[in-house]
Specification:
Elements: H1 2-7, H2 20-40, H3 76-89, H4 91-104, E1 110-112, H5 116-129, H6 131-145, E2 148-154, E3 165-170, E4 181-183, E5 186-189, E6 192-194, E7 200-206, E8 223-227, E9 231-234, H7 253-274, E10 278-281, E11 320-323, H8 333-347, H9 352-356, H10 364-404, H11 416-419, E12 423-425, H12 434-446, H13 452-458, H14 463-479, H15 492-528
Antiparallel strand pairs: 1-12, 2-3, 2-9, 4-5, 5-6, 6-7, 7-8, 10-11
Helix pairs in contact: 3-4, 4-6, 7-8
Length: 529
């Protein structure tokens, strides 16, 4: 062995790597730079400490992307696909979508106009074209796909009984993301054409859905240039200059997927544990070996079969049985799942209770506080998205079409701004506490803080229609000699009570006026003195 060692080549001494000197020089320069910055109070990109912890060079934040508002357009197609898949297959995602639609649109956001005949004509047109149903479709498409496209469609005379106008609703796939070009001095980005000063002048739309194969007619893969005045692009703009919308489910998709995997794993564990009722050990035979294998017939003629859930088999003498003690489920399963669903609910702009319809841990006061915040978000969606980008333009085009087609003539002296604009009334919300809510409305009206018109609008009603119906009801009750406490003046007692109340009110007003006049006189004398 010694000879073998002597015959082996001697190990070569480790030489310094060729890059040692440059690295040593680099470290020296870095130390010198740090010393200079410390001496002069300078903080730069390579500073060892950050003024803000959020700017620290940690692994979590050093690769955060910071791009413009339209740099992520290429990712929208994938996000849309995942969002639609979640709505189709995840019960919480589907329920969240319908919760938002029912709260934003409900049975329809309706217009109020001072011109009764124009309002009736619009109701006829809305019923004929399904306008309120299209509101829900626009809202759902925007939430699920990030944006919705609506296009005005003029109809021939006689196509519709009311006004020859219709609105076509399309998914954002009709507006391709990859269409970028320059044309006539204008810029086309993601199929949206802008002029030199940044105004949107046209949209380049597919006639058919690019991934929906329509049988019976040829599919075209070319876009058509549609003037911007004919298109309504409905989405919530998050950043200035943003041209395409992002699905509201974008921030919740990963959490939903991970939670689904966790639910499946927990379910499989419980299913596996439920399959075992117990275990047995076979006795050794005279030769010390184990009898026939599991599932076969042993020497005593007993068939040993695989266990079914909660099924037990008769065993011969000598067999030992152990009861199955499967592990219990994860003790943190319920609270962990609740917190994950709460995160999903927050990302979808709602509460945990709205997402799950589980109100067991929410009291009356907590529910009121939660609803205040939820209603603020819903109202923002209603006025900044649905009304501003869809309902308002539809009303304006409807009135213009009605005038041009001769279906409605503006009254003499009416200003265009009076009939080209409408007051949109969202659907009424249910009462949390009906008695207290009505009392609060009544007290606010009596105190002059609000008006009956505004309260009726909050309840989704038109105060003029309410007054008309009340007058008709009161007239009918008087004619039929029906006595209801709602209508004062139907009998002598009520007349007397009303007169007494009026007299008392007038007397009280006179006393208050006299006291006020006396106080003013005393103040004047004091100032003169």
């Amino acid at each position: 062995m010694a000879k073998s060692r002597r015959s082996m080549p001697a190990p070569v001494a480790a030489a310094a790597p060729p890059a040692t000197e440059p690295r040593r020089l680099t470290r020296t320069l870095q130390r010198a730079g740090v010393a200079m910055r410390s001496a002069f109070g300078l903080r730069g990109k390579f500073s060892p400490k950050s003024q803000y912890e959020a700017a620290s060079p940690s692994e979590r934040v050093q690769h955060v992307a910071d791009t413009g508002p339209n740099a992520s357009v290429g990712e929208l197609e994938r996000i849309r696909a995942r969002s639609r898949h979640a709505v189709r297959n995840n019960p919480h995602a589907k329920h969240a979508l319908w919760v938002l639609i029912s709260n934003v649109v409900g049975y329809g956001i309706k217009p109020l106009t001072p011109y009764k005949d124009l309002g009736e004509l619009f109701e006829d047109w809305a019923e004929e074209t399904g306008f309120y149903r299209k509101q829900a479709l626009v809202c759902g498409t925007w939430l699920q796909s990030g944006e919705a496209i609506a296009r005005f469609r003029a109809r021939l005379e006689g196509d519709l009984d009311s006004v020859p106008l219709d609105v076509q609703i399309m998914e954002p796939d009709h507006l391709p993301l990859h269409n970028n070009a320059m044309t006539g001095g204008n810029t086309i980005f993601a199929s949206i054409e802008e002029d030199l000063i940044g105004r949107i002048v046209a949209y380049h739309l597919y006639r058919d859905h690019p991934t929906d194969y329509v049988t019976g007619r040829s599919q075209t893969w070319t876009t058509s240039r549609v003037p911007a005045s004919e298109v309504m692009h409905v989405f919530l703009q998050d950043r200035p200059g943003q041209r395409r919308g992002v699905p509201v489910f974008a921030t919740a998709l990963n959490t939903l997927d991970n939670l689904s995997v966790y639910d499946d794993a927990e379910l499989e564990r419980k299913k596996g544990a439920a399959m075992f009722g117990g275990f047995y050990r076979k006795p050794l035979d005279s030769e010390g070996s184990i009898p026939d294998a599991f599932g076969e017939i042993d020497d005593d003629g007993i068939v040993l079969q695989p266990l079914q859930p909660n099924t037990w088999l008769e065993l011969p003498v000598g067999y030992e049985v152990d009861m199955a003690t499967p592990p219990s489920g994860d003790a943190n399963y319920a609270p962990f799942r609740r917190e994950q669903l709460a995160a999903v609910a927050v990302s979808l702009h709602m509460t945990y209770e709205h997402l799950t319809w589980n109100f067991e841990k929410l009291g009356d006061r907590q529910y009121r506080a939660a609803m205040l915040e939820f209603v603020r978000l819903i109202e923002m969606f209603q006025y900044h998205v649905l009304i501003d980008l869809f309902c308002g333009p539809v009303w304006k085009r409807f009135v213009q079409t009605a005038i041009l087609s001769g279906r409605w003539v503006p009254p003499e002296g009416a200003r265009p701004r009076d009939y080209l604009r409408a007051q949109w009334t969202p659907p009424a919300r249910g009462y949390v506490h009906p008695v207290q809510d009505i009392q609060a409305y009544s007290a606010a009206i009596r105190a002059g803080i609000t008006s009956r018109k505004r309260v009726a609008g909050q309840l989704g009603e038109d105060v003029r229609q309410i007054d008309l119906e009340n007058a008709q009801d009161q007239a009918a009750a008087t004619e039929l000699k029906l006595r209801y406490s709602t209508y004062v003046g139907q009998d002598a007692d009520q007349v007397a009570m009303a007169a007494a109340d009026t007299a008392a009110s007038e007397a009280l007003a006179a006393v208050v006026a006299a006291e006020t006049e006396a106080d003013v006189g005393r103040f004047a004398e004091a100032e003169a003195a």
